[in-house]
Design a protein that fits this description.
The protein is mainly α. Helix content is 73%, strand content 0%.
Length: 477
């Protein structure tokens, strides 16, 4: 090609690599590095003997392994720091995101085991993964529903989860077919440049697999446009090289099919655009605490093709929340029940539905949905604290204590200490009455005079491996 195109391409590659280094997208950095290395090997293949090429490959792998071992040996020297370079290498060498991906993959595997043949349906991973429990996650934001995972960060597991084994095999079949075509072209093309380009496309697919295994290019339309463009190029070249004879189809039939396909897609698109427009308005209004307008906009956003937001939280939940804050508890309950039917595994929906049942004096149903949220995420603080408070208000003091006692004593939840104090006080008094020990009573009366001292007594108990009753008994010798 011309010098101008070569220079432009070289500059683009250099700036792309610089951008990747700045962004620290390790999966893409690994894939690009692999691509460049394999492309360099292809370049050397025509210039070195087979033996020298093998020696070079061994030497490269050895250097890579030594480099990786060195990096892992010094990774502990880097820590979170305001220093840009230290922070850069700390983030680059951190293994936290890798372990997070393993947790995501585990959820996908649970889904696959239960839905091996049919899958759960396209787009349903985000609303289904909580069904298999959130207690496996190390990130407390996920455990408490403040962070929602949209996909398992692995396109292959995503496809298998959502469309089952047959869809997964079809998906792999597309790539196996195009890999074969790329390889065939790299061997059989008449022109040397065409063979070399076919090799580059082959490497492109290999490296795409690396990214798809650790990331989610399937969810990014620009990545799919690039992928399908490359597939189209390879497929067209392969068919041309094989002089393939196409099948004749009536052009009128094609036009009719394409027309109805576009009409169907455009209809869905139009409904979703309207839904997203009103959803955006509703969320902006929601921030101003104008609940009436927010409810109006959320209702306008709802339609046949748009019933949840981007995090699989039903729009009815948003409506119910606005109604609840407006004091319309009966209407709010109806909205939360609708939201629950759409996404029964959302812990936020279960918690708010439970609270609304309590407001409508249906204690049994409220407790049921708090427990349902805790079944999904046993460490979900909102539901656990709310359940403890419900038990306390229902005068079930022992259940209230057993419930809140499972909270992390280091919890930063706003309501934790607010409800913990009266529950612990009731538990302590009940235990003292049961023990009927005047000496113990006097000792604790002199020791615990304020709420802070009561909480300190409780937190001291949490540090000991015993029951609260036994700790009370052992507090005086």
């Amino acid at each position: 090609m011309s010098k101008r195109i070569r220079v432009t391409s070289t500059v683009a590659i250099i700036f792309t690599i610089i951008l990747l280094l700045l962004l620290r997208t390790r999966t893409v950095m690994i894939a690009v590095s692999l691509y460049l290395f394999l492309a360099f090997l292809l370049h050397l293949r025509n210039k070195l003997s087979k033996r020298k090429l093998i020696y070079f490959l061994y030497a490269s792998v050895t250097i890579l392994m030594i480099g990786l071992l060195y990096l892992f040996s010094i990774k502990d020297h880097f820590h979170s720091s305001p220093n840009i370079m230290i922070q850069y290498f700390y983030r680059l060498l951190s293994s936290a995101t890798f372990y997070s991906r393993i947790e995501f993959w585990q959820q996908a595997i649970y889904i696959i085991k239960d839905n091996f043949l049919s899958g759960i349906g396209i787009g349903n991973w985000i609303s289904t993964y909580p069904k298999y429990g959130l207690d496996y996650f190390s990130n407390t934001a996920i455990v408490n529903g403040r962070m929602i995972i949209s996909n398992p960060h692995n396109d292959f597991l995503m496809i298998f989860s959502e469309i089952g084994v047959f869809g997964f095999l079809c998906y792999l079949g597309i790539f196996m077919s195009i890999l074969y075509q790329s390889y065939w072209l790299s061997v059989n093309e008449n022109n040397t440049i065409d063979r070399r380009n076919a090799n580059y496309f082959l490497l492109f697919f290999i490296c795409y697999f690396v990214i798809a295994f650790f990331d989610f290019p399937l969810a990014r339309i620009e990545h799919q446009i690039l992928l399908l463009t490359v597939i189209a190029i390879i497929n067209a070249k392969y068919l041309k090289a094989n002089s393939a004879i196409g099948y004749k189809v009536s052009s009128r039939l094609v036009y009719v099919f394409v027309f109805f396909l576009l009409l169907y897609a455009s209809t869905i698109l139009a409904y979703r655009i309207v839904g997203e427009k009103h959803l955006n308005k509703a969320k902006n209004v929601e921030k101003t605490l104008d609940n009436t307008t927010a409810i109006f906009e959320f209702n306008k956003a709802k339609n046949t093709f748009f019933s949840t937001d981007n995090y699989a939280i039903p729009l009815d939940w948003h409506i119910g929340k606005a109604q609840f804050y407006s004091g319309n508890y009966k209407e709010s309950l109806d909205s939360f029940i609708k939201a629950y039917k759409i996404n029964p595994y959302c812990i936020i929906v279960n918690n708010d539905l439970a609270s609304t049942y309590i407001k409508n004096n249906n204690i049994a149903e409220g407790i049921k949905h708090y427990k349902e949220a805790l079944t999904i995420s046993p460490n979900y603080e909102d539901a656990r604290i709310n359940l403890a408070a419900t038990y306390y208000n229902s005068k079930e003091y022992e259940k209230a204590f057993q419930t809140i006692d499972k909270c992390d004593s280091n919890s930063k939840h706003n309501s934790y200490k607010q409800f913990l104090t009266p529950i612990v006080e009731k538990k302590l008094n009940t235990t003292l009455v049961k023990l009927n020990n005047p000496k113990l009573n006097e000792h604790l009366k002199s020791k615990i005079k304020t709420e802070d001292e009561l909480l300190r007594f409780y937190f001291d108990y949490k540090e000991n491996n015993c029951t609260f009753d036994n700790y009370i008994k052992s507090s005086v010798k």
